[in-house]
Write a structure and sequence with these properties.
alpha+beta, Heat Shock Protein 90, 17% strand, rod-shaped
């Protein structure tokens, strides 16, 4: 039962309320007990002072001490208090019992001062363990005249009865309040957690096949609404990731199918006849070698992106000079460009210290250069420039190709995307790329805290720009 959040919330609520009620009850009980005892003392003090004044007045009127004492106890009739008058030696002159037959008793004479009443507790002889509250005061008629003692007592029964009623009220009210609070807390917890139960049931039904489903949001402004909205955003990201993976698999299958078909066709045609000329075998093996190289390159690029998506391709940063790396990549690309009749021009750049992953940055530059060379016709140019733009480094790769169609420009960084499908098929046969180079270049730039963007593309050519943070060492 304690595994339920509703049960734990209810128990916490009842526990805190029980603690509050116990503290409140004890405080009220202690305060009331103190007030009742103060009231008892006040009444006893008022009675003993009135009796002392009455006794002094009766004696001043000429009555004898016994007569004055008798008149005093008869005049001051308070049913729940016992009153007695004693002489200086403690001999009883007159008394009146309380309604409960309690009798006034004198405390130790040595503790009774001459100027004010004294209050004390004395044993009640009527009941073992019971106590009486006693107020006593000396009465001196003249400065050198005789001294009398007035004692008023009252039992604690009335105080105890009121406190007993209060205890009974607390013993009934507190458990009843806790029971009602527990039931109310259980209801409120169940009502408050109902959206969580609904979200849990909806989440249990969501799988890879229906990631487009969403959790219900009962109130988007409260905490549970924020939780459901956050979970829905997570589902949207997962759905996008699954869609990307499905598209990746479909595109990869499509791209791998063409070279594999070429390989099988070349091998089958070559093996149709038992004997062929050496040149025919060499042509077949050359085609097979080209397609195998294309497959290997494609698998390597796919493996790189898979590791990047899984976060298992660490960025190994070290100090380097970016201008030297750009120059090295341009020279390597220049060898490939020369075979096609394309020239690679590198603008002069200042010494540029940088801290990054040399292999990853080289692959990014080579992919951009390879893409530019591939779509630049013979006699064209590819221009590379390294410079600074405000607080960042800027690497631009511009070509003089035919440009990218306007409708394809937003998709150039998508995996396996190529605008010209007929050219894509021709490249697949001739060993061209698989449409992953720009995706890898974008990931490499972002891994270094930078960005890559298509600056422009038209009949005059295409320009890509890489912006890297300036982290001079």
């Amino acid at each position: 039962m304690l595994d339920s959040v509703r049960a734990r919330l209810t128990l916490w609520y009842v526990g805190v309320l029980a603690l509050a009620l116990v503290v409140f009850s004890l405080g009220v009980y202690a305060l009331l007990a103190r007030r009742l005892h103060q009231r008892l003392d006040t009444n006893l003090r008022a009675t003993v002072e009135a009796a002392a004044a009455s006794l002094a007045h009766e004696i001043d009127e000429g009555e004898t001490a016994p007569q004055a004492a008798q008149s005093t106890v008869l005049d001051l009739f308070i049913p729940h208090q016992a009153l007695a008058v004693y002489d200086a030696e403690g001999r009883l002159l007159a008394e009146r019992h309380a309604r409960d037959q309690a009798r006034a008793r004198l405390p130790d004479l040595s503790v009774v001062p001459a100027d004010r009443p004294v209050l004390s507790d004395l044993p009640d002889p009527r009941s073992p363990g019971a106590r009486l509250r006693v107020a006593a005061q000396q009465v001196r008629i003249e400065p050198r005249g005789p001294t009398y003692l007035v004692a008023v007592c009252e039992s604690f029964d009335a105080v105890s009865a009121e406190l007993a009623v209060l205890r009974q009220v607390f013993l009934i009210a507190v458990p009843l309040a806790l029971t009602l609070a527990g039931l109310g807390g259980w209801f409120l917890a169940r009502r408050s957690l109902a959206p969580v139960v609904a979200m849990s049931e909806s989440a249990r039904r969501i799988g890879a096949a229906n990631l487009d489903d969403r959790l219900p949001v009962s109130n988007p402004r409260d905490e549970l609404g924020h939780l459901a909205a956050s979970f829905n955003e997570l589902l949207a990201r997962l759905n996008a990731a699954f869609a990307q993976q499905r598209q990746f698999m479909a595109d990869a299958s499509h791209e791998l199918r063409t070279p594999l078909h070429v390989l099988r066709t070349a091998a089958a045609v070559t093996l149709e006849r038992p004997r062929r000329e050496e040149a025919e075998y060499r042509d077949a093996l050359t085609m097979i070698d080209g397609q195998a190289a294309r497959l290997a390159h494609m698998v390597e690029e796919m493996f790189t992106l898979a590791r990047a998506d899984a976060g298992r391709r660490p960025v190994e940063r070290r100090d380097l000079y970016l201008d030297e790396l750009v120059a090295e990549a341009s020279r390597a690309a220049g060898v490939l460009a020369a075979r096609k009749g394309v020239t690679v021009e590198l603008a002069e750049a200042a010494e540029t210290p940088f801290r990054g992953d040399e292999n990853l940055l080289r692959q990014m530059l080579l992919n951009l250069l390879d893409n530019a060379i591939r779509y630049t016709p013979a006699g064209g140019q590819v221009r590379v420039r390294l410079g600074r733009e405000e607080a960042a480094l800027l690497v631009t790769v511009a070509d003089t190709g035919a440009g990218i169609p306007a409708e394809a420009q937003p998709h150039v960084f998508e995996r396996f995307y190529r605008a010209d499908k007929s050219r894509s098929r021709a490249e697949s046969v001739n060993g061209g790329g698989a449409g992953l180079g720009l995706s890898i270049a974008r990931w490499a730039a972002e891994a270094h805290g930078g960005t890559i963007r298509l600056v422009r593309s038209g009949p005059a050519g295409t320009t890509f720009a890489v912006v890297l943070p300036l982290n001079l060492t």
